[in-house]
């Protein structure tokens, strides 16, 4: 798996740089964030403590006065990922463009409708929730633009989304 630090000018939703930090290793990155290595699946904001530690390990410089930084894991793309992660045969393919929409019966799960792409960070898996539909899958979707959920949390650049909220583009 590849790990990238993405830099954003403060107050901007548009990145202005990225640095591959895969050589640091998954264990060191997980320790930096204080989580188990097998849980390193989301996008993580990096604060001063993490960036100082990452600088010591990698010798990469960071400017917290003008930028915000996020650690983003990225899976390997394509058919190899489908096979190695046990991609369900009934699932939408990696790279499928989708529209993520709001549920009309409640105020969520996102503030607005937006576009994204099915990613191979994790293979789709059954939704484990009392409100899940029979056979419903959740997909890892990378968003075209950062988004806020219906509770105002974010911005998120990707998330696991139930397939009931996804419309594949044709």
Largest sheet, described in full? Answer: 6 strands, antiparallel
Residue stretches low in confidence (pLDDT < 50, at least 5 long) are 76-85
Overall shape: it is: globular
Structural class: alpha+beta
Instruction: Please give the number of β-strands.
Output: 10
Q: Look at the structure and give the mean pLDDT.
A: 87
Secondary-structure element series: EEHEHEHEEEEEE
Report the helical percentage: 10-25%
Count of runs of 4 or more consecutive helical residues: 3
Radius of gyration: 17 Å
Please state roughly what percent of the residues sit in beta strands, choosing from under 5%, 5-15%, 15-25%, 25-35%, 35-45% or over 45%: 25-35%
Give the N-terminus to C-terminus distance in angstroms: 29 Å
Name its key features.
170 residues; alpha+beta; 4-stranded antiparallel beta sheet; 10 strands; globular
Give an account of the 3D structure:
The structure is a single chain. The protein has 170 residues and is α+β, with helices and mostly antiparallel strands. Helix content is 15%, strand content 32%. The strands form 2 sheets. Strands 5, 6, 7, 8, 9 and 10 form a 6-stranded antiparallel β-sheet that branches. β1 and β2 form a beta hairpin. The protein starts with a strand and ends with a strand. The model is unreliable at 76-85 (pLDDT under 50).
């Amino acid at each position: 798996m590849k790990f990238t630090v993405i830099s954003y000018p403060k107050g901007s939703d548009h990145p202005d740089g990225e640095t591959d930090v895969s050589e640091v290793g998954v264990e060191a990155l997980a320790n930096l964030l204080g989580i188990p290595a097998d849980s390193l699946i989301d996008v993580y904001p990096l604060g001063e403590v993490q960036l100082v530690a990452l600088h010591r390990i990698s010798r990469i410089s960071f400017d917290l006065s003008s930028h915000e930084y996020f650690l983003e894991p990225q899976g390997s793309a394509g058919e190899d990922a489908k096979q190695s992660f046990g991609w369900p045969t009934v699932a939408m393919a990696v790279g499928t463009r989708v529209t993520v929409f709001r549920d009309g019966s409640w105020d969520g799960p996102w503030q607005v409708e937006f576009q994204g792409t099915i990613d191979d960070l994790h293979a789709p898996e059954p939704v484990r929730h009392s409100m899940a539909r029979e056979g419903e899958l959740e997909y890892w979707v990378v968003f075209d633009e950062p988004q806020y959920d219906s509770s105002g949390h974010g911005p998120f650049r990707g998330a696991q989304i139930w397939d009931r909220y996804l419309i594949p583009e044709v």
